[in-house]
Structure formats: C-alpha cells, structure tokens
C-alpha cells in the first residue's frame, strides 16, 4: 500500500471512510468521489482549476462539488484513472445527499444546464453597443457635463455587464466546449475589462468550493481591513492582531470598501498576479484593454482626462459590483470549515437569494439567485428561476433554511 503520491497507491483491500479522512495533510491528500478514492497529493499541482481548490476537499467526500464544477465528466474521469486508489466499502451517502443528487439528475434531464444562444448573444452584443454609444455621445454632443455623465453611465453599464458576462464564461455555462468558454472568458475579462482570466479562476473557484470559509474562501480574506464573522473577530481580538479601528468598520467600509476595490485593489492584485505567475497572455490583453480605452476616449478627453474618466467609472462600477456580489454572502455564516458538511447545507448556510424583478435580474447579473448559482455553478443564469422552486421544495423537505430577502434588506444586512 502506497500513500502520499509516491509509487503505486492502489489498494487491493477495500478502504473505509474514516481512513480517507486521515489523508488531509499538505503532503498526503486523498479525495473521495462517488465511493472511489483518489490520491491527489501530486495531481493537485497539475489540476487545471488550481491546487488550492481541489486541496480544500482533501480527506472529504467531494462528489457533489466534483459534479458541480465539471461539465464533461467523461473526459475529466480519464485523468482520475492514474491516481485511483480503491473503493470505500462502507460508502453510504446521507439521505439529503441522495435527494440532492436526484435533483441534479432531474436538472440534467430537463435540460436546465443547456444555454439559450439568443440570451447570451444578445447580452454579448449589448456590451459593444453600450461602449459605442458612450463614444457617440462625446462625438455628437461634446464633453459638457450632461453628455459626460451620459457617456459615463453607458460605459459603467457596459463594464458592469461585462463583469457578469465574464462570470458566465468563467463558469463554462455558455458553450458546451470548455475550450471555447475559456477563450471567451479571456476576451470578456481581458479585452473588455482589463483583468486576468487565470486570476479570476484562482479566486472564484475557491470561493465556490468553500464559500465563506476562513482560509479557504479568498473573498473573506480582508482581516487587515475588515473582520468578517464572529469567529474571525474573536480570534483576532484575543490575539490583539490587526491595526484598524474595527469597531468602526461599518463606517469606514463606505470609504475603503466599495469606492476602492475595483479602481485600486483589483488593479494591483491583477498586475501582481500576472507578473508573479508570468501570465503573459492576460498581461498582454490588459495592455490591449487600456490602449483601447485611450483610443476610444483620448481624442475627446485627452490623456489625463481619459484617465480621470476611467477611474471615476471604475469607482462607480465598484459600488455596483460590491453591493450585488456581497448581498448574498457577507451577512451569512463566515466560519472555519466544518468537515463532512454536505453540499446543500454548505451552500445554503453561506448564501441567500434576493427578490427577483426583470430589472434587478439584469442589474445583478442574476446573482440575486445566488442559492441556485452555487448549487449548480455551470447552469446558465437564465434558468435559475426555473430550478428555484425545485430547490426550495428540497430545502423544505430537509428543514434547510431557504432565504430570500428584499433588495433593501439584503443591502442593509451588509452594513449590519
């Protein structure tokens, strides 16, 4: 019997679930998928989604997470054959796991994972239309304060919606081909937004794998500015860590949170990520993006004027982004990872929905259906409303709290 990824790791005798749990160390990681055990110690470094996201499930049953993230399971399964160890003899999914997997099968049968081409084509085209209209406003009406505001509104809307669009491609929810989704993701997040596809994947898939889990979800790693959740606050308070006046964080959030996240922090992190990882493609696309912005607005606003227009637009978009993405996460449980938490409970305890209207669906990129998005991350967003009643029914059966808030309550809860 081998272990830790050294030599032949295949077991002739059946394994036990308890034995799998013990293999959750940095140099000894096993993964359980549908009763089969895989040694991912070495494979994690080659994992296309990154080493961290797969390592977060070391020693655990990753069946539902694996199914949720991989569209072409037959292709992905080929990569698992070389690291297969053996079967768990006492593998028995819980009732809630069995019911959720039945729901997943029903979702696939109903075709709810299939995208509507018209929806995504029209949305993609609208991004270029809004940007073109922003340039047309300056060309037609000049740079007075009214056309300036109109052009900025159009540009901000294009950038915010491009953010939701890249999110679709990043989750492989638009095309059947993973490769085509990857290329469109590079185009939307790189050419249209000046960010990095690989950087987004690195952060966002960890968030989906273990949402709101301390040290596993990058989105809650803000302790040097904000302490999120009770556990982090108690831990840092008892150790006298940090230097911010955290008792006032609900106030300085309005100064350091939404206004600065996109225009300052994300620019720094993307550049740092690309240089550190030698990600030349994404770095090149970011340069093309900034060149494109200067070419679009430079003749009207000049160099510094274009820079100011861009930074103000980013600050406005940053508010749009923060409130829409965090209304369904920050007010919920932010804790250390609890092992053996089933997929349904994990996602429902850390997410909530927000009331749906046609405008708010568009405004938030359908992230107001955060529960359905987290349970089925590759599902095209126009189908969230169709699967929502099925998810709600399953939650009622098992006594899981399915939370849906009004927009006002969801935004207020961030501050609370």
TrEMBL record:
It is found in: Membrane. Pfam families: Cyt-b5, FA_desaturase. PROSITE patterns: CYTOCHROME_B5_2. SMART domains: Cyt-b5. Residues 12-89 form the Cytochrome b5 heme-binding domain. The chain crosses the membrane at residues 118-139, 251-268, 283-310. Residues 1-22 are annotated as: Disordered. GO terms for biological process: lipid metabolic process. Keywords: Lipid metabolism, Membrane, Oxidoreductase, Transmembrane, Transmembrane helix. It is a multi-pass membrane protein. It comes from the Eukaryota. Its main location: membrane. The keyword Transmembrane helix applies. GO terms for molecular function: oxidoreductase activity. GO terms for cellular component: membrane. The keyword Membrane applies. Belongs to the fatty acid desaturase type 1 family. This is Cytochrome b5 heme-binding domain-containing protein. The lineage of its organism: Eukaryota, Metazoa, Spiralia, Lophotrochozoa, Mollusca.
């Amino acid at each position: 019997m081998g272990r830790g990824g050294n030599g032949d790791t295949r077991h002739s005798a059946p394994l036990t679930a308890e034995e799998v749990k013990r293999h959750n160390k940095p140099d000894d990681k096993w993964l359980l998928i549908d009763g089969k055990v895989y040694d991912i110690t070495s494979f994690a470094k080659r994992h296309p989604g990154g080493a961290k996201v797969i390592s977060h499930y070391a020693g655990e049953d990753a069946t539902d997470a694996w199914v949720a993230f991989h569209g072409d399971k037959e292709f992905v399964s080929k990569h698992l054959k070389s690291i297969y160890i053996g079967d768990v003899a006492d593998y028995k999914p819980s009732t809630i796991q069995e019911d959720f997997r039945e729901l997943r099968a029903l979702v696939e049968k109903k075709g709810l994972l299939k995208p509507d081409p018209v929806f995504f084509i029209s949305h993609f085209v609208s991004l270029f239309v809004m940007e073109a209209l922003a340039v047309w406003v300056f060309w037609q009406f000049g740079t007075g304060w009214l056309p300036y505001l109109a052009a900025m509104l159009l540009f901000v809307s294009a950038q915010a919606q491009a953010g939701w669009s890249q999110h679709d491609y990043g989750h492989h929810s638009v095309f059947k081909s993973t490769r085509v989704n990857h290329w469109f993701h590079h185009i939307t997040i790189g050419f249209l937004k000046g960010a990095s596809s690989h950087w987004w994947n690195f952060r966002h898939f960890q968030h989906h794998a273990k949402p709101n889990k301390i040290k596993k979800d990058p989105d809650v790693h803000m302790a040097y500015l904000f302490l999120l959740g009770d556990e982090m606050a108690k831990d840092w308070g008892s150790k006298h860590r940090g230097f911010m006046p955290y008792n006032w964080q609900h106030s300085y959030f309005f100064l350091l949170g939404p206004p600065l996240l996109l225009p300052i922090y994300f620019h720094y992190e993307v550049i740092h990520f690309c240089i550190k990882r030698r990600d030349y493609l994404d770095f090149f696309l970011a340069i093309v993006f900034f060149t494109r912005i200067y070419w679009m607005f430079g003749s009207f606003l000049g160099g510094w004027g274009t820079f100011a227009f861009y930074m103000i637009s980013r600050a406005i978009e940053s508010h749009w982004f923060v409130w829409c993405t965090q209304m369904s996460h920050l007010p919920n449980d932010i804790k250390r990872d609890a092992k053996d938490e089933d997929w349904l409970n994990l996602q429902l305890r850390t997410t909530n929905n927000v009331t749906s209207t046609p405008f708010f669906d568009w405004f938030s990129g359908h992230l107001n259906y955060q529960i359905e998005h987290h349970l089925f991350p590759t599902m095209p967003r126009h189908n969230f409303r169709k699967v929502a009643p099925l998810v709600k029914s399953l939650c009622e059966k098992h006594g899981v709290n399915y939370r849906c808030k009004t927009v006002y309550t969801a935004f207020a809860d961030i501050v609370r």
